[in-house]
Amino acid sequence: MAASMSNFNLKDKVALITGSSHGIGAATAVLFADLGAHLVLTGRNESNLSKVGNECEKHGAKVLLITGDVTKEEDNETIVDKTIKHYGRIDILITSAGIYMMRTPIHKTSMEEYDKMMNVNVRAIFHITSLVIPHLIKTKGCIVNVSSVAGLRAFGNAAIYGMSKAALDSFTRSAALELAPHGVRVNSVNPGATDTGIHMRVGMDEASYQKHLDNCSSSHPLGRAAQPEEVANAIAYLASDAASFITGTNLPVDGGRQAACPRSHLKSGDHQISSPLKST
Ligand code: NDP
After folding, report:
1. Which atom number of ligand 1 is nearest to the Cα of residue 68?
2. What are the tens digits of pLDDT across the range 231-269?
3. Which of 7, 115, 199, 257 is most buried, most CB within 10 Å of its CB?
4. What is the pLDDT of residues 44-60, one digit of tens each?
5. How far is CA 161 from CA 30, 73, 251, in A?
6. What's the CA dihedral at 232, 36, 90, 137 to 10 degrees?
7. Which band of pLDDT confidence, cut at 50, 70 and 90, is reported for residue 4?
8. Domain residues of the chain, as ranges?
9. Do 102 and 203 meet the contact criterion of CB atoms below 8 Å apart?
10. Span 9-279: which CATH code?
11. Is 148 in the pocket of ligand 1 (CB under 6 A)?
12. Cα separation of 101 and 79, whole Å?
């Protein structure tokens, strides 16, 4: 394959994007529309899904909206069945449906919270992947999972979230090996803090969320949180032919956070690094 800018487009690829009603998944949907993909957008919130769908149509994409809860096996079956009935194929699976939880010590975490996190962030992705694989084998397609820097590095008071993302990273590598003989690539992006408001959806108030974003000036070497579009750029790259020889990778999109060592302990369990952008 010749090196060419044309490898970066997604023209006429059918992309199924979970969690595309908000945040990173929504930004990915709009970028994919720009790059020429036909889209299947899913999430539980119908009104958010419609707004994202309208935006994608303005960018010229064909869009199929399917509401569903990825923790329900019957919903995942419906999503895949309707996609195949509508488009006849799937070229790309992006798994951006995911949840966070307020930071909690292990001994104060309930098993209900454990099950909820693992169900959405791991079990649901395993299930929808298993349903999509036969279609990706036919198209020699690809998967990009949306993981986290928390899959690569440990953070205090966030054990289950980190475990869920480390499990997803392992799944990404296993699936990559299993599917490589079929010409199907599987990768993940591992974002650092990204300004989508995900924390406020699990009860963080606005002032604390703003503080969380402000703290990124010291916790992320590039001195800030990401915008969802910056993560979408990396997802689009991995999904495109420009990444034709990349599989089994967990790609940090984290302003350098995973590369850093903590240099001061501001408070127990909250390892911060010093930022050259901030220090004078
Ligand atoms: P958002 O909360 O903005 O979006 C999450 C998306 O997931 C929504 O579209 C939501 O849709 C969907 N979703 C959640 N639960 C379910 C469910 N049970 N069934 C179907 N859809 C569901 O989060 P982000 O965009 O920030 O997060 C996306 C991914 O990125 C997550 O896996 C997160 O862990 C990861 N990530 C995020 C970071 C950040 O700082 N924001 C940092 C690192 C990783 P709906 O509500 O309509 O169901």
Report:
1. 20
2. 999 999 999 999 999 999 999 999 999 999 876 555 544
3. 257
4. 999 999 999 999 999 99
5. 27, 22, 18
6. -80
7. confident
8. 9-279
9. yes
10. 3.40.50.720
11. yes
12. 26
The three-point CA angle 67-144-191 to 5° equals 95
pLDDT grade for 280, boundaries at 50, 70 and 90: very low
Residue whose token pair is 């919130």: 45
Token digits of residue 41: 């957008």
Please give the positions annotated as active site: 161
Pairing of strands 38-43, 142-146: unpaired
Pairing of strands 264-267, 270-272: antiparallel
Pocket test for ligand 1, best of 16, 22, 30 (most atoms within 8 A of CB): 22
The letter for the amino acid at 184 is V
Under 8 Å between Cβ of 56 and 63: yes
